[in-house]
Write a structure and sequence with these properties.
Layout: H1 2-18, H2 23-30, H3 37-43, E1 51-56, E2 66-76, E3 79-89, E4 94-105, H4 108-111, E5 118-123, E6 128-132, E7 138-146, E8 149-162
Antiparallel strand pairs: 1-2, 2-3, 3-4, 4-8, 5-6, 6-7, 7-8
């Protein structure tokens, strides 16, 4: 029993050191996602001055699945990007559901690129417009006023699947 405790203690003390050069992976490992490193590195981006925060799905998921959410925020007042990543590690694969919210000063009619996005609908009862690109990706946009400022909020969601990688 003492030997097991000693091995656990040493392992838990040394494991973070192996990943200390990458705070992104350290955070996921601390919350239980340990077999999706390559998938996480290729589907998230911390270049630049991002702030990021981790949380774990309360109570866990069925079986051997683990879900961890990371929120990244960057930019400045009136021009920010917030991305919510929900990574799920199952017994066989890694999954991602991400939602990007961009807030910028100005009207959505001037902020949404007509070259990429075409309007496909309007939800006038809730003030949203729906756009799609040539690949079928959808974006939801809404104009809001805060004091004297007019802001455009745009949201895009993506899903992806990846394979396990060894640490």
């Amino acid at each position: 029993m003492k030997t097991r405790y000693f091995v656990f203690l040493i392992t838990s003390l040394l494991a973070p050191l192996a990943w200390s050069e990458d705070p992104l992976l350290v955070g996921f490992h601390e919350y239980g996602i340990t077999r999706c490193d390559t998938f996480i590195k290729t589907t998230s981006n911390l270049e630049g001055s991002w702030s990021f925060f981790f949380s774990k799905h309360a109570g866990g998921l069925d079986g051997s699945s683990t879900e961890v959410t990371m929120v990244q925020i960057a930019g400045k007042k009136g021009d920010t990007v917030k991305i919510d990543y929900s990574y799920i590690q199952t017994a066989k694969a890694c999954f991602l559901h991400a939602r990007r919210t961009v807030t910028s000063e100005g009207n959505c009619n001037t902020k949404v690129s007509g070259e990429r996005w075409g309007k496909i609908g309007e939800m006038s009862d809730v003030d949203y417009q729906v756009y799609a690109d040539g690949n079928g990706m959808q974006m939801y946009a809404k104009d809001i006023k805060v004091g004297d400022s007019e802001l455009c909020i745009r949201e895009i969601g993506v899903r992806a699947r990846g394979t396990h990688t060894k640490n």
